[in-house]
Amino acid sequence: MINWNFPPNNYGQITGLNDAGIETFRGNPLDSLAREINQNSCDAKDTKNNGPVEVHFNLVYVPAQFFPERDRFINILNSCREYWEDNAKTKQFFENALSIMELEKIPFLKISDYNTTGLTGASEGQRGGWHNLIKSVGSSDKDSQSGGSFGIGKHAPFACSNLRTVFYGTKEVDTGTEAFQGVAKLVTHLNEHDEPTQGTGYFGMIEKNRPITETAEINELFRRSDVGTDIYIAGFNEKSEWEDEIIKSALENFFIAILNEKLIVKVGGITINANSLAGLLEKYTKNDPECLSYHYYEAYTLSNRYHFPNKDFLGLGEIDLFVLPGKDLPKRVAMVRGTGMKIYDKGSFRTPFKFAGVLIAKGEGINDFLRKTEPPTHSAWEPDRHENPEEAKAIIRKLYSWINEQVRSITVVTDEEELDVEGLSQYLADNDDPSLEVQAQQEIVQNSSEGEKAAPQDIEIDINYRKMKQTVFTGIIESSDVYQETAAGAEDPEDVQESEDGSTEGSVRGSGGEDNKGQDTSGHKDQRGNSKGRENEGNNSAAPSKNMRLVRSRIFCINPNASLYKVSIQTDVEGSGYIGIKVIGEVGGEPAPVKSVIVQQTGESVNIRKNGKIGPVSFYKDEKFDLLVTLEGSLRCALEVAIHAN
Prior knowledge:
Layout: E1 2-5, H1 20-23, H2 29-43, E2 53-63, H3 70-83, H4 88-101, E3 105-114, H5 128-134, E4 161-171, E5 178-185, E6 200-205, E7 228-236, H6 242-259, E8 263-267, E9 270-272, H7 277-284, H8 293-301, E10 306-310, E11 319-325, E12 332-336, E13 342-346, E14 355-361, H9 364-371, H10 389-408, H11 434-447, E15 495-498, E16 504-507, E17 524-525, E18 531-532, E19 550-559, E20 564-571, E21 575-584, E22 589-591, E23 594-599, E24 614-619, E25 625-631, E26 639-645
Parallel strand pairs: 2-8, 12-14
Antiparallel strand pairs: 1-6, 2-3, 3-7, 4-5, 4-7, 5-6, 8-9, 10-11, 11-14, 12-13, 15-16, 17-18, 19-20, 20-25, 21-22, 21-24, 21-26, 23-25
Helix pairs in contact: 2-6, 3-4, 6-7
């Protein structure tokens, strides 16, 4: 008998909607779908056929009456909704699923591959590719040249289904056997005997949940005539740009397989093959900041690129590296395994020039090793996943080191000047340390929403200027809070020194030249040099001067055309005072030609005195204070900031 069947769970574990395998691909479902499907089809290549594997993606609308055992499936959806009545998220999912089943035509994404072996073992019970795809969880029998090793990629189509239901059809290459079966990854519910069920059910022969293998019993809409496999994603979550997303995924991840004529991908009316690849890369990815495949394509094909072959890397087989220098290139290397699929983009290169590169691991040994370090999403090489993590770290470290050596061997003549900021390297990943490279990859994923690609982030750099004694203005607190400069000729300099952590520190001296930094200010000298002690604290005309220190300061240009800079300041105490900004030169500095100053937090303008000092402004302990400073003319320069107590 042919129908839907959800086996009872014998009152055991209850299955909810959050399937771990499906959730793995929920962040970017269409990209994950294209990666997994194309990879699986390439793994199933018919070695007796010289042509490339072809994968076709087409959106079809199946009349509701042809949905396999539609009435029975609707009853199951209703039972699921009733069983999870108290769970708002699950209830909403099944209400939406029921509304889809009421449509006159239900959207299906049909994915078909050609020049493959099809799914073998459909009639062999618990053996073969059919069983591994339909019924096994977390298992795979693929070899080293295959892409997958976890058996989790099979969940990717379910992440694209609003019914969590996928149908499979195949025709085997050797026997010509045809098979058809459906899988629905739903939730525990009550069957017709009021028994709780498992969450996963099957459409096909109810006895032992076997596939339909009699051709006459397979609906013509789902019948496979050529050798290969069909996947039907029921209730496909169609979007207006679903085709573009799948095309971009194929271009980004399989440009090597396509260029080497191992794979052809058709999405709707678009055919991606070796001849159309260049034009499609330019159209879909060249101007997309999240896509790098156009640069990698140039690195792999242009005549002026550098080629570094290695016939036997560490005794593990052949690897190839292609590098193209260029000022607008991303300083990334596409890490590609023998399948022709890109695993990830390697960065963290410290070279004096920009470039794009492609590394291809061709040897069987190196592919077998790298496959064992990949997560289920095949988006990184993580040594700790290997059965021997220390050995894996050593091999990947040597691989990264080899890549760095080849890139550094390139001599590029450029008129660009790059600055190696002292101390900055401690914040960059060590190119030869695979654990840091993996950490960087993981941080990118964690910072993105549910696995979506993360937008590039702005980087702020703290610059440690060389220590230099500078003469600046000194302020004295008066009862009227009016800023007064040191009288002409008075020996009243304020030393701006650099602390051990790189922040600047202001100290106030009296006219006698005594340094009060770090000293108790209960006794000090006034402008005339008269000593005043605590007995004068009540005299408002002679309040003590304040010692204020910068614990954090940053200056960076945010609009060079407008000469607009952002100044961020944080002090160790509260108080009011003035800010001085200087243009830094080789042997000192001079006051910057400040045109206007605005407090970023409030939008208020700040006064600029004739002597160049900015203020007065109020500082608050441990709170960042931001100013937008515009300089006179089109000036872009290195600046220094100092604060002066009021």
